[in-house]
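Lab notebook, design round three. We kept the backbone fixed and only want residue identities now. Task for the bench partner: fill in a sequence for the structure below.
Input structure tokens:
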């Protein structure tokens, strides 16, 4: 028994300690990484279900770490310990993505939407509206192209503030998507007070949809909620044709996921657009 305990210690604790140490090291490198331009924005196409055409892209941040390679934001951004740096990275991502979108725009003359994730911390900043306005001005991107993705949890954490802030954002002409919808606790009463344009079904519901009838029911319910509130519904994490067919038959508007494309560099997406790629 003692040996088993010892083994367990040997197996788990040092690894956990390494992980913890590595995470802390990463946190301490974030500011330097920004300075050294190690961050990149990738873009995942969003596909209209009826036309099969790319109608937009979600900007997804990556850290091209000198020794670890490409790191996803869940690892370094979700628990960022330096709030000022986290905000600076968010501003950088917004500006970079908007600049990229103007390049697509002038090359294609296509109304391609650019969706970007806004963290709860970013959303709570008093100057968020000013930051967005200034970024649009500096990059020359038209406001109606930009979609800000706000998680359900963020929107619900201070409902009155959310209503005010979303109204301000809508007033400058940007669109709002409610992200990770269904993972939190929205009441329809609040939902109808938010000036939203779209709902995003979280990939956690899509993943097991074909075997888990609860997940399938939730996905259908979200689509029905969207229909009754006249919102577009976008599913994320679509990986199989079966999921695609189910969602299309249920009335979903758009999808993103590895079935269509993983996140791409700005240039790679531009090549798909130039080829008028249909899915
Ligand atoms: P999210 O907003 O829910 O983004 C969707 C995530 O699903 C992305 O993970 C995307 O790469 C992944 N995904 C897309 N299609 C598939 C698929 O078919 N299968 C699977 N298994 N996954 C798929 P990613 O890029 O790792 O981003 C994770 C989260 O980090 C995002 O979740 C978002 O909350 C956050 N994030 C990403 N970029 C930014 C950013 O610039 N600013 C902020 N504040 N948060 C960001
Ligand atoms: Ca998102
Ligand atoms: Ca819910
Ligand atoms: Ca999600």
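Proposed sequence:
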């Amino acid at each position: 028994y003692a040996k088993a305990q010892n083994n367990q210690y040997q197996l788990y604790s040092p690894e956990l300690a390494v992980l913890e140490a590595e995470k802390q090291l990463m946190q301490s490198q974030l500011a330097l990484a920004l300075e050294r331009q190690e961050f990149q924005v990738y873009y995942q196409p969003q596909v209209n279900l009826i036309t099969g055409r790319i109608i937009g892209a979600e900007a997804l941040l990556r850290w091209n770490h000198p020794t670890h390679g490409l790191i996803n934001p869940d690892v370094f951004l979700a628990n960022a310990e330096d709030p000022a740096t986290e905000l600076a990275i968010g501003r950088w991502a917004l500006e970079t993505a908007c600049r990229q979108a103007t390049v697509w725009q002038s090359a294609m003359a296509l109304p391609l939407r650019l969706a970007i994730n806004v963290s709860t911390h970013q959303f709570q900043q008093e100057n968020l509206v000013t930051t967005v306005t200034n970024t649009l001005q500096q990059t020359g991107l038209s406001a109606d192209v930009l979609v800000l993705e706000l998680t359900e949890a963020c929107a619900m954490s201070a409902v009155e503030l959310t209503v005010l802030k979303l109204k301000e954002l809508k007033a400058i002409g940007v669109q709002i998507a409610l992200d990770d919808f269904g993972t939190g606790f929205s009441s329809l009463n609040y939902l109808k007070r938010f000036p939203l344009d779209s709902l995003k079904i979280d990939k956690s519901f899509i993943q097991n949809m074909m075997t888990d009838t609860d997940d399938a029911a939730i996905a259908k319910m979200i689509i029905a909620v969207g229909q009754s509130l006249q919102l577009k519904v976008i599913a994320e994490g679509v990986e199989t044709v079966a999921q695609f067919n189910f969602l299309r038959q249920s009335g979903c508007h758009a999808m993103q996921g590895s079935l269509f494309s993983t996140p791409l560099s700005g240039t790679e997406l531009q090549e798909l657009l130039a080829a008028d790629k249909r899915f």
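Keep this in mind before ordering anything: The CA atoms of residues 129 and 165 lie 8 Å apart.
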